[in-house]
Amino acid sequence: MVSKTVSPATKRSLELLKRRGNFIVEFEFDVESDITEEKIGDAVAVVVPIPLELERVADLAKKIRDAAPAVLVCGSIGVPDQKLWLLAERSGYNLVSSDGSIGGTLLRRLASPDKGRREAIAVMNSSETAGRLGLLGTFEIEGKSVAIWRSGGRLGCLENVCTHSGATLSEGDVEEGVVTCPRHGSRFDICSGERVRGPADDDVVHYDIFEKDGRIWVVPT
Ligand code: FES
């Protein structure tokens, strides 16, 4: 299932699916009006152009997922904009590929036994964090706010919400791999989310995070 608005390069690339994978590729679907369960409920994958308006990137992925939770959400991107690419991955696209190679990428993914599994998402380039300690950044990952720190020789990623009464953890101090909530002082390990000190009773949700190939990756839960 492919949006009518994809580029000619995307269309050519998706011919691969027909030829090599024996898939039915349907081009007649309108991103604006046809994202409904009726239209895409039986699709294996939906390919749409990544919107250039940043605020629409997450909306589009959510709209597709709401209509068909099991479908692979695939974004084709026509501009060499790494920030846009990273944003799309963080917003819930199962895969993002350049216009001309989406067919091959999707074919490999559909052949994989765990094709629906979310893969690690690149959130930052390591070069942006060189020499920095403490809070490295906050991001939206599939609608959840997360914070990333480097402290005590470790890299950690937690949901950016204190379990005591909802303060924003990224606004707290971090020391030796432990972040202190700015509101009432609960403390949490930045890697495991474990509560080190109350008043909070519960741990914070943590995300696996690693550095590879010059990027920092977070694994969605
Ligand atoms: S809100 Fe974090 S300790 Fe109270």
Show the helix and strand layout.
Blueprint: H1 8-21, H2 37-40, E1 45-49, H3 54-67, E2 72-77, H4 82-90, E3 95-98, H5 102-111, E4 121-125, E5 134-141, E6 144-151, E7 154-159, E8 174-175, E9 178-180, E10 187-189, E11 195-197, E12 206-212, E13 215-219
Parallel strand pairs: 1-2, 2-3
Antiparallel strand pairs: 4-13, 5-6, 6-7, 7-12, 8-9, 9-10, 10-11, 12-13
The protein binds FE2/S2 (inorganic) cluster.
Describe the structure concisely.
This protein is an alpha+beta fold. The chain has helices spanning 8-21, 37-40, 54-67, 82-90, 102-111; strands at residues 45-49, 72-77, 95-98, 121-125, 134-141, 144-151, 154-159, 174-175, 178-180, 187-189, 195-197, 206-212, 215-219. The longest helix is centred in the first third of the chain and has 14 residues, at 8-21.
